[in-house]
Specification:
Length: 364
């Protein structure tokens, strides 16, 4: 069960909101002797062998919903339908009414006519980049008014609504985006976004799609650095799939634990504020509670700032002792010399206290 993602999708369905889902494909270089290793597209690397890792991600929680490993010559457009089926199974999207509350945010590799029509037929909302650059250039010619949008760091972009849209299986709006081509002084590069939302304005839609940039890539990078995905290799394809599943579990566990800690700290802060109101007449105790609230705020900030790499290398590497009495863990003293240990001790103490485990600082 996908802890946070299922809850967000369920909330979106119940409250008639929209939950956004990202999908991406990345290359994983391996030995040419490994099973499934094929020559394919690997960013900034040519002529090497590898596999392709497809991932479905909830951007709000960065939780992995589904993952699958493919031969190195597999393309994004070829894995879309299969990954969509795995996502539906993981999130229990078994009816069209439920799927209508999910927006698929896709890059151009997934945006073929077949994939877009399949998603529209299934009832999904779309914010997807069209696959064909040549078609995007042709459609952009029907734009009647180009509007300057925010700069992306490489040159000012312009956007405009396509008036002669490409026909799909369901009504869509299509937004053309262009930016100067550095290789041509008077030329532009064009992309077209396929959109099912008929109400939101141009800038809001562009910001929503721009927010996709970096989310899947960032999670891949964090897993490579924090979970050593590219360093752990096996010859047999089944063994590689097992490593992928273990890595997915570790990734999600880090995300879940992070959210559990923050939720526990927020609940603790609310309880202390209620207690402070009850004893407001006692000045000394009120001052103590204020310091505790500040400590909780700093602890939450430290937890939120840490990605998977720092989570694994800092929090999971804390020195300490586990005290077991009669087969039950009762306490966990931590090394008091570790940087920011007071914040981490507060986080673990708040999380584990309800199950009877005391986390404290060891005497030095």
């Amino acid at each position: 069960e996908h802890n946070q993602s299922q809850a967000l999708v369920r909330e979106a369905i119940e409250q008639s909101l929209t939950a956004t889902i990202d999908m991406d494909l990345t290359g994983r270089p391996v030995s040419e002797n490994a099973q499934g290793a094929k020559k394919g597209y690997f960013s900034k690397k040519r002529g090497i062998y590898g596999l392709q890792l497809a991932r479905v991600l909830m951007p709000d929680t960065q939780e992995i919903i589904a993952e699958e490993l493919y031969p190195g010559n597999r393309l994004s457009c070829q894995v879309f339908i299969e990954m969509l089926g795995e996502m539906e199974q993981g999130l229990s999207l078994d009816t069209k009414e439920k799927r209508q509350r999910v927006c698929l945010r896709l890059d151009g590799g997934f945006g073929t006519d077949k994939n877009i029509n399949h998603a529209l037929w299934k009832g999904y909302q779309l914010l997807a980049k069209m696959f064909s650059g040549n078609r995007a250039r042709v459609l952009a010619q029907s734009v009647q008014q180009w509007v300057d949008v925010d700069a992306d760091g490489k040159g000012t972009r312009q956007a405009g609504w396509v008036t002669k849209t490409h026909r799909y299986g369901r009504k869509t709006r299509q937004l053309a985006v262009r930016k100067p081509n550095p290789k041509k002084k008077s030329g532009f590069n064009y992309v077209v976004l396929v959109i099912t939302d008929m109400t939101r304005d141009m800038l809001t839609l562009l910001r929503s799609y721009d927010a996709r940039s970096g989310v899947p890539e960032s999670t891949f990078c964090q897993d490579n650095q924090g979970l050593a995905q590219r360093k752990l290799r096996k010859h047999h394809f089944v063994a590689q799939q097992m490593l992928m599943l273990l890595s997915q579990l570790a990734h999600n566990l880090c995300r879940w634990l992070k959210q559990w800690m923050i939720s526990a700290l927020v609940a603790k802060d609310k309880m202390e504020q209620s207690a402070r109101l009850m004893i407001a007449c006692q000045r000394a105790e009120t001052q103590q509670q204020s310091i505790s609230s500040e400590a909780i705020r700093l602890t939450i900030s430290s937890i939120e700032q840490r990605g998977i790499r720092r989570w694994v290398r800092q929090l999971f590497a804390l020195d300490g002792v586990i005290v077991i009495k009669k087969g039950v863990v009762t306490s966990h003293p931590l090394n008091a010399n570790y940087p920011l240990i007071s914040r981490f001790q507060l986080a673990f103490e708040t999380l584990l206290k309800p199950v009877g485990v005391r986390v404290r600082l060891a005497k030095t």
